[in-house]
Amino acid sequence: EPPAAMPAFRQVGEKQLPQEVVFMAWSPKRDLIALANRAGEVLLHRLANFQRVWSLPPNENTGKEVTALAWRPDGKILAFGLTDTKRIILCDVEKPESLHSFSVDSSITYMHWMEVTEESSVLTSFYNAEDESNLLLPKLPALPKNYAFCIFSEEKSDEIMKLLGDVRLNALVLGGSSGFIEIYAYGMFKIATVTGVAGSCRGLCLSGDLKSLSVITEIRDSSDSEAEITYFQLDTSLLSSYLPEVTRMARKFTHISTLLQYIKLSLTCMCEAWEEILMQMDSRLTKFVQEKNTTTSVQDEFMQLLLWGKASLELQALLMNQLTVKGLKKLGQSIESSYSSIQKLVISHLQSGSEALLYHLSELKGMALWKQKYESLGLDASGIEEAITAVGSFILKANELLQVIDSSMKNFKAFFRWLYVAMLRMSEDHVLPELNKMTQKDITFVADFLTEHFNEVIILICQYLKDEDDDLVSPPNTEGNQWFNFLKNSTHLKESPLLFPYYPEKSLHFVKRQMEGVIDQCLQKPADVIGKSVHQAVCMSLYKTAQSEDSTPQLFKLPFLWNDKTSNIHYVLFTILENSISKICILRRHTDTSRSVSNGILAVEFGNFLNSINESSDSRCYSCLDAHFYDDETVTVVLKESMEQEGKERVLAQLPLSSVYTDEDQDRELIWDSTKRLDEQSGEIPTRTVFLENQWRVLENMKAQYVSVNGIRKVSCVLSSNLRHVRVFEMDVEDDGEEEEEETTQIA
């Protein structure tokens, strides 16, 4: 036994925080704890001295009210849900930056991120195989420098890999108000929309073998101030029986959604380059046009200059004083560089992104055609075929934009070159002989530009990049195009699935939106099909809870769910009030819904282990305030002395399950009456009195109320009832010493 002076757990940090904490979650892999506070901030703290690593302040776009937090099982990404904007943000653990976000249809009240533990030879070979797309597709070009914040920029190419994470399937389960439950593979792509659960979600846990989903909900009648806490166990065996297929399909989906994001950002870059051109034109040319106040238009005056080689005095003054030779040269160069950057974005980014999209969709179609494997998951080949066609139409539209840019570049260049020479002559500067040569073709270009495009050239490209549904103002002229005429007159080719439909009237944005819509629709179907296959196996009403007067966030309140991956058992921890003492109850269910577990429900009460001065013979003197699973064998609890005395002590303790589940309990099984709530039959629940030996510690000078633990890292964080005072503990201090000693002896 440890000496009396040595408390069981070592305190490694304590802090009074400026804001009330509404959620806390330990990283599964490192000594880091994530907190969310009332102000809407998400904070990351280190175990040592509870030092802050970073904070992410609330913002208008993402939202200000954090209602759920979850770590990806590898600890590299933190997800949080915002109720005011109904958004889910995936954030990098290294720095407070959003890597990915998406909207949901309900305010999220709980999140659980799990990793699949099932093993099979098919899965192992899939995990170890090189992703073929990396071998077959060229690497996506990085976006320009000014997109440093996004995951596709030069500096962050590794972040896409971080976002996709390990190939082993992990799933983010979201629960919200009015029975909303969705499962996202890799935290990014929805693979199931679960229906048939009533109430607002208070807890979720998907088993490591994907066979069952445990849900705790709070069902509230509008008239009744009390809410009923209910436990549902849902059978999700479709996911477990098709695990290799679900993994492959989800992996493809994640690739496709990242590519759609890449294309969207590339288009944004193009629009910005185009706005740059407009600003240049606006500041120099348009101003110059507006200042002209005679009856003749600028176009006419330029035309006169082209035909007779002589400018009116007014035009001459405007050109020489307003625009100047130097200004014109600068304008020409900047417009040309903006044009070429748009061209580059279309060729390198839009086209390579779309080709990669075609590749993944075609692979997905191949999967959909393997009906015995993928049909029951809702993959639909005809829907994917439509998505492929939509991507083809987008590629055609991008090529059309290239041609438009090409022709307007020619006209622009010819016009600038001619005007430059004309202005050099006006200022009686020496004109280089190579600039002086102007062929008839050049003159035609300039004349074309002045008659047709002087105002239109801006509209031409602008209309492609506008994010509106309007048709193009001046669609490309297809008259006399032999291919078009051939298609028009050929009845068979018109309907051919081999030819991508072409929308001459529509803008690039419109075709992109149409493509996103079709892809979304075709990828939405599996989520509906898998969701419909999920059915309720068990529904138990646990207890009623009074409308809480205090404003404690729901996030902390019991019940707590845990999944023991090795023995495939779901545990539910909750408390039931009996004679003003909160007894902790443990409910056990097997993940295979057809199997039952012995000792389905047990209650635990704590014997007197604090040698208080007024030693009482009554052993039942502790109420349980909070309880969480520390690991598969241990539950961490916060207890409060329930005697009527001053200065009630709060205690942090470890409750080993071995002391709860002993062989002598076999005959004390609760005969469950499903017509009644559990708290109405609490007298029937077999109760076990446990005397803690040395795994406890009194929390002096702290009204401890809540605890968050991580048995992998052997740490815990206790939070006071005012939600501002935290203490952090290392839980297994002595054991570590022994382990180290053993290791050194082995080495020796």
Number of helices: 16
Q: Compute the average pLDDT.
A: 81
Radius of gyration: 34 Å
Runs in which pLDDT lies below 50 for 5 or more consecutive residues are: 1-5, 735-748
Globally, the shape reads elongated
How many beta-strand elements? 29
Instruction: Give the strand content.
Output: 25-35%
Largest sheet: spatial strand order: 18-19-20-21-25
Provide the helix percentage: 25-40%
Derived from helix and strand composition plus strand pairing, the structural class reads: alpha+beta
Summarize the main sheet. 5 strands, mixed
N-end to C-end Cα span: 28 Å
Question: What oligomeric state best describes the polypeptide chains here?
Answer: single chain
List its traits.
single chain, about 750 residues, alpha+beta, five-stranded mixed β-sheet, four-stranded antiparallel β-sheet, about 35% helix, elongated, disordered N terminus, disordered C terminus, APC4_long_dom
Structure, explained:
With 748 residues, the chain is α+β, with helices and mostly antiparallel strands. Among the domains are: 1-6 and 558-736, no CATH class; 271-352 and 388-507, no CATH class. It has 16 helices and 29 strands. The chain has a 5-stranded mixed beta sheet with strand order 18-19-20-21-25, with no helix packed on it. It has a 4-stranded antiparallel beta sheet with strand order 1-29-28-27, with no helix packed on it. Strands 2-3-4-5 form a 4-stranded antiparallel beta sheet, with no helix packed on it. α5 packs antiparallel against α8, α5 (243-290) crosses α12 and α8 (325-369) packs antiparallel against α10. The longest helix has 48 residues, at 243-290. Mean pLDDT is 81; it is low at 1-5 and 735-748.
